[in-house]
Automatic annotation (TrEMBL):
A Pfam short name: Zn_clus
Keyword flag Coiled coil: yes
Gene3D superfamilies found in the cross-reference section: Zn(2)-C6 fungal-type DNA-binding domain
Signal peptide stretch: none
Organism: Circinella minor
Positions of the Zn(2)-C6 fungal-type domain: 19-49
The organism's taxonomic lineage, starting at the top: Eukaryota, Fungi, Fungi incertae sedis, Mucoromycota, Mucoromycotina
Protein name: Zn(2)-C6 fungal-type domain-containing protein
GO BP term, pick one: DNA-templated transcription
Annotated InterPro entries: AtrR-like (IPR050987), XnlR_reg_dom (IPR007219), Zn2-C6_fun-type_DNA-bd_sf (IPR036864), Zn2Cys6_DnaBD (IPR001138)
Record key words, sorted: Coiled coil, Metal-binding, Nucleus
């Protein structure tokens, strides 16, 4: 019951009682029967259970608790009843379908699949093949269970391109010493800047069509300290910051602005960009540009972004309690920045990255980005892009470092939140980027299901072959739904030359096709790991995996010819690694095509050696693994000297990859 309001000492503790006021005054025992106790009834006296502010009537609390428990029981009863009705309905429908289509049986023989049926009409037989219905009680191992013994393959090295991982550095420099002594731009001049301007301007000007000057234009004025918030901002030339903004807008492909005006570059050049977001962008772009785009030559890529990152963390301290779009944006960027950190503090950096991602996810939910509540198309599209980016990054984070996922999956929000789609004003390269990421989000959702099913199978029960077939169908349906310009035709002449006007479209095509074959190889790796060699199921899985591996090689071959060198910052190594893994297995088993397979592995090596990512520590170790597998001389033995300037930072202390690195990682999921 409500407490009376009057001034009482705060230090007094609340005392619980069941007695009425009259019994308390007389200091006698009360049977605390509501609304009137027995003693008050006999005396025809008023029975009141009101007390002082330091007294609490426990009887009412007990009554409320009992009422709540009763309501919970009723709700559970209704839920169980509804579930029972739903299950009975499904069983009834299944029986009806079974009775209608139970005219055939499926069996697996040494020669392949065999269908036994009493159908004599060709029309009925055609209907059977197009019905997509399987008998619930087949007479063969059609529902054979697959015992999952391992998690999905995953390299121990994080290879997601946007993490910008650089395995190297120097022990003589730290982030603190860099922020105190390093002057940005010492190795970048406006002439160096202009060498890269032409390509980026052509491909990125669509981000701010209303701005008179491209955001790559080298303004020579100093940046606003209010934008940077960096104490020694006079040491950061404006044209360097312009370049970093441009690098971000072109290379951070997974988030595309839906705004027709008031774009990020517009806000930046009008000094209206949130300092938190600006510094997060500068930090990410500095390391990315140092690794892939010849910025800060001769300097450690792991250190060039640290002053910006330290300022980002300082500004973030005042932003934890308030959710807004710019804070979510900045958190997603610095999550990627922290995921790419290397060195002895790698584990701490991964935990910090997970914290930033978790905070970004909570803010997206707080801003109701998981609900289609916005009325304007631009805001609705903005929410979709942020929500699915958080979903995408969380899946990759779980895959790479084994952290649990928090965003709901298909049974909840991801069914109600639509996938991103281009708006009417988004044309040309920006439209291709949006379409590409929309398809990328779709396939990562399938991969997330594969991860979850594998985890459940490891902990509880094996997977059925039908589950594998269902995943196979989902991936093929996704591929069938790709836009026409994302369909790969190896005979198309566009793969023989580089087209600066359409390379973003071609990039999306190649990456999505590589992702399709990589996912197929991951699905059927479960079958290969659990089936005996020579069985029909194993042979079929090998054929599918071999076909996908060969297609991945073909696709990266087209990549090396048709895309400019700037596009290699989008190149993912995991499909290459899983292809090498399969080829190595064929060679070790002395397959009859071993010579052909060795030739294919050599082709991969040639492509990587001629690529701009040759300076990557991981690429060099992949090449060493290839040469070991095919019995050729390693890179060191070949005295390979074509090393970019960034190789100055290659670490001689890194351990070499072993074949086990291409087999299984404890971080896989």
């Amino acid at each position: 019951m409500p407490l009376q309001n009057f001034n009482a000492p705060v230090s007094k503790k609340i005392r619980m009682t069941l007695a009425c006021g009259r019994c308390r005054e007389k200091k006698v025992k009360c049977d605390f029967a509501h609304p009137s106790c027995l003693r008050c009834q006999k005396a025809n006296a008023t029975c009141s259970y009101a007390g002082s502010p330091t007294q609490l009537d426990l009887f009412n609390l007990i009554q409320v608790n009992e009422t709540v428990n009763l309501l919970q029981k009723r709700v559970r009863s209704l839920e169980n009843e509804l579930q029972s009705i739903h299950e009975k309905k499904e069983q009834s429908e299944l029986r009806g379908k079974s009775e209608e289509h139970n005219q055939w049986n499926l069996t697996i023989t040494n020669q392949g699949l065999r269908i036994d049926t009493d159908i004599v009409s060709m029309d009925d037989l055609y209907q059977l093949f197009n019905s997509n219905l399987i008998s619930p009680t087949p007479s063969s191992p059609c529902d054979e269970m697959i015992v999952i013994k391992e998690k999905l393959w995953k390299s121990e090295y994080k290879t997601f391109p946007l993490y910008n991982i650089w395995e190297g550095g120097t022990p003589s420099l730290s982030s603190s010493s860099l922020s105190q002594h390093h002057h940005y731009g010492d190795n970048i001049t406006s002439d160096d800047y202009n060498e890269h301007h032409h390509h980026h301007d052509k491909n990125c000007q669509q981000f701010d069509s209303n701005n008179d000057s491209s955001f790559f234009y080298p303004h020579q004025c100093q940046p606003s300290p209010s934008l940077l918030g960096v104490k020694d901002s006079q040491h950061v030339p404006k044209f360097v910051l312009d370049r970093l903004i441009g690098v971000y807008q072109e290379c951070f492909i997974c988030l595309n602005e839906p705004w027709h005006d008031d774009t990020l570059s517009h806000r930046y050049f009008h000094e209206e960009l949130d300092p938190l977001l600006a510094n997060a962008i500068f930090a990410w772009s500095a390391r990315h540009g140092a690794i892939y785009h010849d910025l800060f030559q001769g300097q450690d890529p792991n250190l060039v972004g640290e002053p910006f990152f330290e300022k980002t963390k300082e500004l973030l301290k005042d932003r934890f309690t308030t959710s807004n779009i710019d804070t979510v944006h900045a958190l997603l960027i610095i999550h990627n920045y922290m995921m790419g950190k290397t060195g002895i503090d790698r584990n701490q950096a991964e935990s910090e990255a997970y914290m930033y991602l978790g905070l970004a996810i909570r803010m997206t939910l707080d801003l109701k980005m998981n609900q289609e509540i916005e009325t304007t198309p631009i805001k609705k599209e903005r929410n979709r892009r942020f929500y699915w980016l958080a979903y995408f990054l969380e899946t990759l984070c779980t895959l790479n470092i084994g952290k649990p996922m928090s965003l709901p999956d298909d049974n909840n929000n991801s069914k109600t939140v639509g996938f991103p789609a281009p708006l009417n004003h988004e044309i040309g390269p920006i439209r291709w980027r949006v379409e590409f990421m929309s398809q990328r989000f779709r396939v990562i959702r399938i991969y997330r299901r594969l991860m979850e099913l594998t985890t459940v199978a490891l902990e509880k029960q094996p997977l059925s072959l039908q589950t594998i077939n269902a995943l196979d169908k989902q991936v093929k349906d996704w591929y069938a739904g790709l836009e026409f310009h994302f369909r790969y035709d190896p005979h198309d002449p566009k793969w023989k030359t580089t087209n600066q006007a359409t390379w973003m479209r071609d990039l999306g095509c190649l990456k999505l096709n590589i992702e399709y074959h990589y996912t197929m190889m991951q699905i059927y790796s479960l079958v290969l790991a659990s089936s005996s060699p020579g069985t029909p199921m194993n042979i079929s899985a090998l054929q599918i995996s071999r076909f996908s591996a060969d297609k991945i090689l073909e696709l990266i071959g087209s990549w090396s010819i048709s895309l400019p060198k700037e596009a290699w910052c989008y190149f993912a190594l995991e499909p290459v690694m899983v292809t090498i893994r399969l080829y190595t297995q064929f060679i070790e088993q002395r397959d009859e095509d071993s010579l052909v397979i060795k030739g294919r592995m050599k082709r991969i090596a040639v492509i990587l050696e001629d690529s701009p990512v040759i300076h990557s520590h991981m690429v060099r170790k992949i090449l060493d693994t290839i040469y070991t597998s095919i019995g050729a001389a390693s890179l060191e033995e070949q005295s390979l000297q074509a090393t970019p300037s960034l190789d100055y930072w290659s670490s001689n202390l890194m351990t070499a990859l072993s074949p086990s690195d291409f087999m299984q990682s404890p971080h896989g999921a």
